[in-house]
Amino acid sequence: MLYPKIAPSLLSCDFAKLKEEIKAVENAGAHLLHLDVMDGHFVPNLTIGPFIAEAIRRCTKLPLDVHLMIEEPEKYIEPFIKAGANMISFHQEVTQAPQKLFDLIRRQGAKAGLALNPDTPLEKIKNFLSQLDFVLVMSVHPGFGGQKFIKTSVSKIQELKKWREAQALSFEIEVDGGIKAENIDQVAKAGANIFVSGSGIFKTSDYQKTISQMKTKIQ
Ligand code: DX5
Ligand code: ZN
């Protein structure tokens, strides 16, 4: 079994208290920190760059899971790994030749992931599964935190898990968008083992309690 991991998405934290927020989720038992990188082109929002990622790196020992929601991800992979990223995913929708980018990510010692939007069929990534460390299944349309979970992602996760078994592969399945303590069990049952949650953690009053509830439901 792949180890279940809770990955708070900093997008929903209070950036005026970034270090305290990071420490709070770290002490509350988070396994990873999810960093959402948006460029105002692939998605209509702008967030953080390598400079901020490097500052985050200095605040925590948790692995940094960098989710690139940007065009031309090839330009930013190295800067984010230099800044301390341990996992990097980019979107299927923006790359014709993802293989080169997986190699680039792995050569520098990070894990490589491919992300897909809710409307992108799984078939689009089928040929790459054997080269991936993880697949990121978006369960909201990328761009903003706090959106409602899109239920069709459950069957996508189930299908991916089946493919993984059929081909005896070992990639992890990450789910991102609208995940809360209330619905985490359904994506866990479907086969996901990395759970990104932004508002589902940072908009609750007790991170420790929320993360413990999540862990109980996925173990
Ligand atoms: C959306 C991002 C998500 C987002 C999740 O584009 O990729 O990581 O922060 O936020 P919630 O959990 O609030 O949907
Ligand atoms: Zn994300």
Model description:
This protein has helices at residues 18-27, 50-57, 77-83, 98-107, 152-166, 184-190, 199-202, 207-218; strands spanning 5-8, 33-38, 64-69, 87-91, 111-116, 134-138, 172-176, 194-197. Helix 2 (50-57) packs parallel to helix 3. The termini are close together. By secondary structure, it is of the alpha/beta class. The protein has an 8-stranded parallel beta sheet. D-xylitol-5-phosphate binds at residues 9, 11-12, 34, 36, 67, 69, 140, 142-143, 145-147, 176-179, 196-200. Residues 9, 34, 36, 67, 176, 196 line the site of zinc ion (ZN).
> Total number of helical segments?
8
The biggest sheet, with number of strands, parallel, antiparallel or mixed sense and barrel status, is: 8 strands, parallel
Considering DSSP H and I runs of 4 or more, what fraction of the residues is helical? 25-40%
Q: Which overall shape is indicated by the principal axes computed on the Cα atoms?
A: globular
The helix/strand series, from N terminus to C terminus, equals: EHEHEHEHEEHEHEHH
Strand content: 15-25%
Task: Tell me, rounded to a whole number, the average pLDDT.
Answer: 97
CATH architecture: Alpha-Beta Barrel
